[in-house]
């Protein structure tokens, strides 16, 4: 995962939270929905899956309540929250709808970001042709941007990942193991992760041991490093 630092994520969360709280008072409902969506994406980067889901759902609900139509960022955020929980088939249509809405609004960098969220989901679902088409469109947009931010780095990482779910032994990680693996790339202890996933410590530890075996490693740090080198971790990150 492309990381900009834990403190930067916390700071971004604070700013988006302030925007989400202030915007309704001024009647800026689109800004409020978008801020909630981006706050959801930040929560995903901070490995807070429950908050990621709740904020994304609030963004989508607010857009619906205020008759805003399709708010691309909200659909993308909800799709990302599902993907981070391994629910890739549910995530795909939301990410596609979000990308389509952003495309309609003529926001090139936002579109490129949405496409970079969609591509690894398509790849993990085995849709190689559409993955290639999606990355090609993102590459074209990023190439035309004067200041694409971290989009170029995100694109490069995705293009290097040829086999997103194939591990060292040839065994594929399960959807639940992928979810646990993403959470291992964070500061929480296994006990904390078990509580966050609503499973027992023994169940969580069983998943971790299976991940280690499939990746051919013996430590948490090595598992994350190995997963990144193989492209196993979905590259879901903010622009």
Features:
globular; mainly alpha; 2 domains; disordered C terminus; 239 residues; Serine Threonine Protein Phosphatase 5, Tetratricopeptide repeat; Arc Repressor Mutant, subunit A
What is the CATH topology classification name of the largest domain?
A: Serine Threonine Protein Phosphatase 5, Tetratricopeptide repeat
SS summary, helix count: 12
The separation of the N and C termini measures 12 Å
* Element order: H for helix, E for strand: HHHHHHHHHHHH
Describe the oligomeric state of these chains in a short phrase.
single chain
CATH class of the largest domain: Mainly Alpha
Topology:
Elements: H1 6-22, H2 29-45, H3 49-65, H4 72-84, H5 88-104, H6 108-124, H7 128-144, H8 151-160, H9 175-184, H10 190-196, H11 201-215, H12 220-230
């Amino acid at each position: 995962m492309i990381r900009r630092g834990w403190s930067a994520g916390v700071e971004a969360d604070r700013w988006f939270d302030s925007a989400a709280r202030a915007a309704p008072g001024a009647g800026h409902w689109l800004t409020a929905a978008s801020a909630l969506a981006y706050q959801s994406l930040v929560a995903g980067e901070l490995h807070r899956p429950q908050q990621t889901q709740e904020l994304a759902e609030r963004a989508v609900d607010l857009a619906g309540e205020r008759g805003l139509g399709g708010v691309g960022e909200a659909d993308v955020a909800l799709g990302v929250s599902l993907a981070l929980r391994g629910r890739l088939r549910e995530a795909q249509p939301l990410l596609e709808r979000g990308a389509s809405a952003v495309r309609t609004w003529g926001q090139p960098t936002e579109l490129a970001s949405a496409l970079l969220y969609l591509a690894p989901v398509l790849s993990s679902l085995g849709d190689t042709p559409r993955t290639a088409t999606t990355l090609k469109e993102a590459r074209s947009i990023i190439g035309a941007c004067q200041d694409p931010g971290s989009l170029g780095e995100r694109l490069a990482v995705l293009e290097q990942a040829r086999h997103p779910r194939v591990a060292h032994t040839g065994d594929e990680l399960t959807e639940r193991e992928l979810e646990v693996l993403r959470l291992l790339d964070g500061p929480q202890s296994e006990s904390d992760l078990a509580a966050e996933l609503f499973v027992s410590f023994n169940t969580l530890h069983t998943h971790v041991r299976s991940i280690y075996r499939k990746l051919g490693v013996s430590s948490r740090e090595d598992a994350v490093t190995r997963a990144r080198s193989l492209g196993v971790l979905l590259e879901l990150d903010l622009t």
